[in-house]
Design goal:
Strand content: 25-35%
Number of helices: 1
Number of strands: 6
CATH architecture: Roll
CATH superfamily: Beta-grasp domain
Number of domains: 1
Radius of gyration: 12 Å
Order of helices and strands: EEEHEEE
CATH topology: Ubiquitin-like (UB roll)
Low-confidence stretches: none
Structural class: mainly beta
Largest sheet: 6 strands, mixed
């Protein structure tokens, strides 16, 4: 894993979180990485900075629990992003 910062986010006075992507979200991206983010960054900001559309999100979890898009992330959090799943 490498430390990186999603585009459009400055790493001044940062927190470090782990982002995990699942299913087709990994295609051309990553499975798990650590990111440095400004304090008080919410899930929505991270999702958009990674190039996802909010309508693509199936499940957003922080530390294994369902999270709202407005949930603020804290040092050491793990943000897991799952796409919508279709089929029958």
């Amino acid at each position: 894993m490498r430390k990186s910062t999603p585009s459009g986010i400055s790493s001044v006075d940062s927190i470090t979180i782990t982002i995990k992507l699942f299913a087709h979200f990994r295609n051309g991206r990553f499975k798990e990485e650590k990111y440095e983010l400004p304090p008080s960054t919410d899930c929505r900001t991270v999702i958009l900075s990674l190039g996802f559309r909010l309508g693509e999100m199936g499940i957003v979890m922080v530390n294994g629990e369902h999270a709202s898009l407005d949930q603020l992330l804290q040092e050491g959090n793990t943000l897991a992003l799952f796409p919508l799943v279709g089929g029958g």
